[in-house]
Amino acid sequence: MAQIFISLGSNIDKEKNLLSGLQTLIKYFPTYQHSTVFESEAVGFAGNNFYNSVFAAQTEMSLEAVCRLLKVIEYDHGRRCNEKKFSPRSLDLDILFYDHIICSSPAQLPRDEITKNAFVLQPLAELAADFIHPIENKSIRQLWQEYHNPTQKLWKVEFPKL
């Protein structure tokens, strides 16, 4: 079984899309953990605030199969393959870790945003404080404690528990 961590984000009909995306992930990964949902300003472009969280599970699916599944779920929630990198999102699902694999294909692992964005690192630290980042060789807790970017602010959001 592989340990996976997936970030969820949305800034288009964000509560509805994040909840629906989460419910869909649970169908495939029924034994899971889900972080607090945070609201943050858009990073890299002017746009509506985002809801973000992290989902953790174990799976027997291959990395390639998980990546394909995440794309299907995004497309089922209105995402299109030609969208710009920094643009509004109905649902954005990114695999952050698949065990301790380091690779660039079929996804960049570990995901670069982990160490750059509070909206990924803080919810990840809730679920995986002792997980060791295979490139940084530090725990997620330590990365969060060392993180400093005062321009990225997060607010906890009341969100339905599943």
TrEMBL record:
Pathway(s) this gene product operates in, as recorded in its UniProt entry: Cofactor biosynthesis; tetrahydrofolate biosynthesis; 2-amino-4-hydroxy-6-hydroxymethyl-7,8-dihydropteridine diphosphate from 7,8-dihydroneopterin triphosphate: step 4/4
Gene Ontology BP annotations: folic acid biosynthetic process; tetrahydrofolate biosynthetic process
GO MF entry, a single one: ATP binding
EC number of this enzyme: 2.7.6.3
InterPro entries per record: Hppk (IPR000550), Hppk_sf (IPR035907)
EC top class named in words: transferase
Domain 7,8-dihydro-6-hydroxymethylpterin-pyrophosphokinase, chain residue ranges per copy: 5-128
Coiled-coil intervals, chain numbering: none
Keywords: ATP-binding, Folate biosynthesis, Kinase, Nucleotide-binding, Transferase
Name listed for the protein in its UniProt record: 2-amino-4-hydroxy-6-hydroxymethyldihydropteridine diphosphokinase
Organism: Pseudoalteromonas piscicida
